[in-house]
Amino acid sequence: MSSRDRILGRVRRALADVPPDDTPYEQAVSRDYLRHHGDRRVEETVDLLAENLVDYRAVVHRSDAEGLPGLIAHLLGERGSGTVLVPPGLDESWLTETEVTRVPDRPDSTPHELDRVDSVVTGCAVAVAETGTIVLDGSPDQGRRRITLIPDHHICVVRVPDQVVSSVPQALERLVPTRPLTLVSGPSATSDIELDRVEGVHGPRTLEVVLVSGA
Length: 215
Description:
By secondary structure, the protein is of the alpha/beta class. It has a single domain, classed as Rossmann fold (3-Layer(aba) Sandwich), CATH 3.40.50.10420. The chain has helices at 3-14, 25-28, 42-55, 68-79, 111-115, 168-174; strands at residues 59-64, 83-86, 101-104, 119-122, 126-128, 133-136, 153-160, 164-165, 182-184, 189-191, 197-199, 206-213. It is globular, with a radius of gyration of 20 Å.
């Protein structure tokens, strides 16, 4: 018996004497909260996303589809990256102007191997303007969760405006809950009781977000 089976067995036994709920799930919890705050034009929503990302100490860039390969090459060169981790479904055209050695997303890569990679480039599933949050769901252009948690430098491309929404409720409508969701609000950071901020504790120390239009 697996650990999963044991846990589910305990849950079933704990619920054995609980009477069935006659209230449909959709009606059991009130959903009358605001789905988003205020009415914004598309451009204003994208600007709010950029503002909140910067507030979380992410570095925000803007580009069009034509300029994206050159921008990514510039960011990798500016970083001095010798290797870049590439998810299997990443758009090949994004890396046509960089000569950095590409590292594939392999199932058998160890944490030590991933830690030696200089940068990782991914897409995203959706971006939330009101919270400055990027959501990854393990799709082919994003790869396995660990490739965005171990390397110290993450370049994340967000397609504007298709992948930008105002609020978390709007984002959740686009996501599949069974996928490995990772919500990223700025680079990894933590603070101790004296509020001394330390970055790169459980994720990349540097997050660069590229808002690309016309992709």
